[in-house]
Write a structure and sequence with these properties.
The complex is a heterodimer of chains A (310) and B (72). With 310 residues, chain A is mostly helical. Chain A has 15 helices and no strands. The chains are: A mainly alpha (310), B mainly alpha (72). At the A-B interface, helix 3 and helix 5 of A face helix 2 of B.
Chain lengths: 310, 72
C-alpha cells in the first residue's frame, strides 16, 4: 500500500502532527534550563554557537519524545489524555515516529559535537538514551519509582548547556542537575494526586495507584526535605549570589509549606475542597524551579557588571 | 500523460512539503552560519586553509617557519 492510497479513516499527517511528536511543551523546560546552564557558565560562548547548542538540545529532547511515543503507542491508545496523540489517532505511523526519533537523535548529537564539543554531545546522547530506553522501555512499566529515576533525563539539560560553554562537568552543573532531579518527584506526584488518570487501566505502575495516596503524600514530603540542601548548596558555588540566596530561602519555605499541607491531610479533607492543597503545591513547584533558574541567570548578569556574587 | 499532470496528493501534502522546505533551508542556514563563525573564530583564516592536510607553503605566514606549521 502506498501513502497515496491510505484508507479514508486515516487523516493525512500534517506538519503539525510531526511537531506534536516532539512534545513542544516539554521542550520549553529543556530549553530554559539548558540556556541557564550555558549562560551561568564562566566561559563566554559565541551567540550563534550558543543558539545552535540550545537548538540541538531541544531537538534531541524532541527526538527522545518521538521515540517515547513510538514505544508507548499501545498505552497512549488506552489512556484518554494521550489517545489523541499522532500515533494512537492514526495520523502518524509508528515506524515514521521511530525513524524521525532516530534521525533527529543522530542529527542533534552530531551537530552539537561539531558545533561545541563531544562531551556536550555525549551528554545529549546519554540523555536521549536514558529517556527513551531506561525510562520509557525499562522503568515506566516496571516500577512506581519510574518518574524519580526517569527524571534524570529531564534534569540533565543544564549540565549539557554548561558543557557546551566549558567543555567540562563541575560541581555547579552537578548541583543544577540534582536540583531538577530532586524537584521532579514532589512536582509530579502532587499532580498525580489530583489528576484522575487511567494509568492503572494501561498497566503503568504509578505510586498513587500501587501504594495509594497516603504513601504518595509521604513521598512528596520526603523528597521536599531532601530538595532543600541541594537548593541551598548551589549558594556556596561559583554561580551562587545574593539574588539566588534570597530566592532559594523564600521558595524553599513556600514549597515546604505547600508540601506540608499536602502531607498532613487525609483523603476526605482533600476531596472536600477538590484537592486545593495539591493543586497549590503543583503551582508552587512550577514557580519554584522557574525562579531558581531565573535567579541564577540574574546573578550571572549581575556578575558581568561587577555586582552581586559573594 | 502530460508533464502538467496534477494529482490530489500534491494539494494534500502541500503543507508538509513547505514545512520540509523550511526545515531544510534552516538546516542549510545553520551549517553555513556555523562555518562562518568557526572560521572567524580562528582569527587568521589561513589556519583554515592549511587544514586540508596538504602543506601549501604559499599559505604559511612569512614569519613562521614552515616546519612548525607542517607539524600541526
Amino acid at each position: 500500500m502506498t501513502d497515496a492510497s491510505l484508507p479514508e479513516t486515516t487523516r493525512e499527517a500534517s506538519m503539525g502532527d510531526y511537531i506534536a511528536l516532539l512534545k513542544p511543551r516539554v521542550m520549553s523546560l529543556v530549553v530554559f534550563t539548558a540556556l541557564v546552564g550555558l549562560i551561568v557558565a564562566p566561559v563566554p560562548v559565541h551567540p550563534f554557537i550558543a543558539f545552535v547548542g540550545i537548538l540541538c538540545i531541544a531537538v534531541g529532547g524532541g527526538a527522545s519524545a518521538a521515540l517515547n511515543m513510538w514505544w508507548d503507542a499501545d498505552i497512549d491508545r488506552i489512556m484518554k489524555r494521550t489517545s489523541n496523540r499522532p500515533i494512537p489517532s492514526g495520523r502518524v505511523q509508528p515506524e515514521e515516529a521511530l525513524a524521525i526519533g532516530l534521525a533527529l537523535s543522530g542529527f542533534s548529537v552530531v551537530l552539537l559535537g561539531l558545533a561545541s564539543n563531544w562531551l556536550a554531545a555525549g551528554l545529549l546522547a546519554f540523555t536521549i538514551f536514558f529517556y527513551a530506553v531506561v525510562y520509557t522501555i525499562w522503568l515506566k512499566r516496571s516500577t512506581p519509582q519510574n518518574i524519580v529515576i526517569g527524571g534524570l533525563s529531564g534534569a540533565l539539560p543544564p549540565m549539557i548547556g554548561w558543557a557546551v560553554a566549558t567543555g567540562g562537568i563541575t560541581i555547579e552543573s552537578v548541583l543544577m542537575v540534582a536540583l531538577i532531579f530532586m524537584w521532579t518527584p514532589p512536582h509530579f506526584w502532587s499532580l498525580a494526586i489530583f489528576v484522575k488518570s487511567d494509568y492503572g487501566r494501561a498497566g503503568v505502575p504509578m505510586l498513587t495507584e500501587t501504594h495509594g495516596r497516603r504513601v504518595t503524600r509521604n513521598h512528596i514530603m520526603g523528597y521536599m526535605i531532601a530538595l532543600i540542601p541541594v537548593s541551598m548548596a548551589i549558594v556556596f558555588t561559583s554561580i551562587g549570589g545574593w539574588v539566588y540566596l534570597a530566592t532559594a530561602i523564600i521558595m524553599n519555605l513556600w514549597f515546604l509549606k505547600a508540601c506540608y499541607a499536602v502531607w498532613r491531610r487525609d483523603e476526605e479533607a482533600a476531596e472536600a475542597d477538590s484537592f486545593a492543597a495539591e493543586r497549590s503545591a503543583f503551582k508552587v513547584s512550577l514557580a519554584y524551579l522557574f525562579l531558581h533558574f531565573a535567579a541564577l541567570m540574574i546573578d550571572a548578569a549581575l556578575r558581568t557588571q561587577g555586582i552581586g556574587g559573594f | 500523460m502530460t508533464i502538467r499532470v496534477e494529482h490530489e496528493l500534491h494539494t494534500r501534502r502541500k503543507g508538509r512539503n513547505y514545512g520540509l522546505l523550511i526545515v531544510l533551508l534552516a538546516f542549510v542556514g545553520l551549517v553555513f552560519g556555523l562555518t562562518v563563525v568557526k572560521v572567524l573564530e580562528l582569527g587568521d583564516a589561513r589556519k583554515f586553509e592549511s587544514n586540508d592536510h596538504v602543506l601549501r607553503p604559499a599559505l604559511l605566514p612569512m614569519d613562521t617557519p614552515a616546519t612548525t606549521e607542517a607539524g600541526q
